[in-house]
Amino acid sequence: MSKSDSQIVRLDRMPVVPAWAVARVPVSSDTEAAFLAGAALNTLDNLVRLQPDWAGVWRQRLALKCAVSAVRLTGRSEDEAALRDVWVLRGAGDDLGPAGSIFAAYKRLAARSVPIDMKVLRELTDLFTIRWSDELAAIPAMTDDLNQAGRMAPFAAAAIVAEVLSVRPDAEALAWWLADWVLAQRLNWDRPIPLLMAHRASPAFRLEAGRGRVRPAEPGFERAVCLALAQASAEACRLASELARRADRLVAVAPKLRAKGAGEAIRILLDEDAVSGALRTARLSRWASRRLFERLIEFDAVRELSGRSTFRIYGL
Predict the structure, then answer these.
(1) What is the pLDDT of residues 84-133, one digit of tens each?
(2) Fewer CB within a 10 Å sphere, N or C end of the chain?
(3) Closest Cα to residue 48, out of 110, 105, 115, 116?
């Protein structure tokens, strides 16, 4: 079987969360919510195990969605386009600002798995602009205890949110970041998938009769996290199917590209959410890069994401 044949088979077999695993009506049973989360996470796990070539851009695009939600939590209004601008157009040593720093935290979550030690924790609090305190120093021990306790993944994720907010109610963005990290640890993924922050305001957390939202450590919070994870997993799988088709198109046109650095540029497009139209590599000049992206647009293999005529940004 050729490489292209293998890609076609993989696209045909893309894992899809079954419709019944995402609740359409209120769920009052913890057991049912856990069952739905388990079914959805099993599908997502199957996708993760495929290790597709485009897994990098998939994780980074999920990171962008979570970053927007975290930015809104702080009262700021930057959207996906604004965060892309901050990141892609940054210069060496530039201050990313509060919103850009939050995006950096989520890009870091998506890029690799790191142990949550004191050094990493202090770096995260800086990115989230959270004041350091002795209470936060207990978080590495919290994550270790959850990993050793062997709790089911959704409940471990809910527990770290509740534990962090019990000592620092102002650290919610960090708490949800850690929830995705704990989830990956419990599911034995090689790196986390940004999921929960983008769904912290989902209907799963709303109480009936306009009584507000269920809070961490309150009855019903674990159930809400389970339902949010089912929804997040379904949306992540749908995004994966969309990106798989676009990546397949990009790889298919690669032999038609004459630029010497085209292969490296394609690899970056498969790894990153967005790439500057002025991309420079060891084998690709700015002029060659501009021509390469023009060709990829002609082939309908990438999209221009900024909508501008200058400072263009490209991605799948």
Answers:
(1) 999 998 887 888 999 999 999 999 999 988 889 999 999 999 999 999 99
(2) N
(3) 110
pLDDT value at position 64?
Answer: 98
Q: What is the pLDDT of residues 68-79, one digit of tens each?
A: 999 999 999 999
Q: Which two tokens stand for residue 223?
A: 């159930």
Cα angle 8, 9, 10 (rounded to 5 degrees) comes to: 90
10 burial type by CB count under 10 A (0-12 exposed, 13-18 middle, 19+ buried): middle
How many angstroms separate the CA atoms of 183 and 195, rounded?
A: 10
Does residue 24 contact residue 52 with C-beta atoms inside 8 Å?
A: no
Residue 278: DSSP 8-state: T
What's the CA gap between 60 and 271, in Å, rounded? 8
Following DSSP, what letter does each residue of 180-219 receive, concatenated?
HHHHHHHHT-SS----GGGGTTSGGGBPGGG--BPPTTST
Query: Any idea which residue has 């949010």 for tokens?
Result: 228
HSE, CB side, 13 Å, CA atoms: give it for residue 86: 20
CA 62 to chain centroid, in Å, comes to: 3
The side-by-side arrangement of strands in the sheet containing 313-315 is 275-276, 313-315, 303-304
